[in-house]
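Blackboard transcription, Thursday session:
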Amino acid sequence: MKTQEELRRIVGNFEIRDEILDVAPLGNGLINDTFIVKTSGKDNYVLQRINNAIFQDVELLQHNIDCVTRHIREKLVKAGESDIDRKVLTFLRVPATGKTYWTDGETYWRVSLFIKDAYTYETVDPKYSCFAGEAFGNFEAMLADIPDTLGETIPDFHNMELRARQLREAVAADPVGRMEDEEVKEILAELLVYEEEMTKAERMHREGILPKRICHCDTKVNNMMFDADGNILCVIDLDTVMPSFVFSDFGDFLRTAANTVAEDSPEIDKVDFRMDIFEAFATGYIRSAKVFLTPVEKENLPYAACLFPYMQAVRFFADYINGDVYYKIKYPEHNLVRTRNQLKLFRSALSKVPEMSSFIASL
Ligand code: GN1
Ligand code: MG
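(Written on the board underneath:)
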């Protein structure tokens, strides 16, 4: 942990002219450490320590983010939008290097403008899910003609075949002896039953019938900012913007928004996949994404709604087996509780596929 003094010194490397009054923790991301920087001037800032154990190529990461924010900004300007600084993130440069990150050779940091009067939520109702669907569809549509080449900031991030392989490796190594437990064995057996079905996106891609597009890849509800009137301002957390299947954005939003409880709630009996949220989100998403969606992408959206709880269950479970090395945890069984929760959500979504499919077909 850095002291207040050290954090202030880090911020001092960026092009901020006003006096820094305070640096305090912000938000609840599972990967990076985030702080709000309060200044004596009109703008405040967000300071983030980039987790470079996970994002190993920070240069590529910040390149992607630069390209994406620049491209969106240009589109907003062309469309004559007002208040653009609240509709796309702005990253500050380090004058000494011209880069949008600062490093002491060990830790990596970046600073962006704090968006004023903006709110994030952990849950949304159907009305806002529909707005969110439209916003993520728009985000993908805006990036469809980006001239730059974006790399994969985490290679094969949402590749289900890879995630399944990583789980098998974790199980084979069993580094902290967690495979002895009966429940753990049962969870593994259940996950393996669906592996074939859940890896179909990669097969469709190899057959040439499923394209990769620039997606956000972390469309959790709390990665979207709303103004005080409930209008969507912008999407945040751009670390994982990269080429992927559209299933990433569609599925990961519903994984968080359509769950009746939080992803780590231990009240597993209460976990259920909400069809009202699904219908609202799908309606908004298809409204803006129909300009580029192919029939194969559209008809597989119900599969995406199942894939993401499944993939997240696999990822949380693999991390539990590995001894909690990836996700931040608050107590020893946190990743196991998350796994139970996501597995239950997966079962619930799977049982609603016919209903989802007929709804999608009606749009
Ligand atoms: C991580 O950084 P955060 O908390 O928004 C993770 C996502 C998971 C999510 C689960 C880079 O997102 O993929 O879905 O936790 N991000 C990375 O809550 O692994
Ligand atoms: Mg986040």
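Lecturer's comment: Residues 95 and 123 are 39 Å apart (CA to CA).
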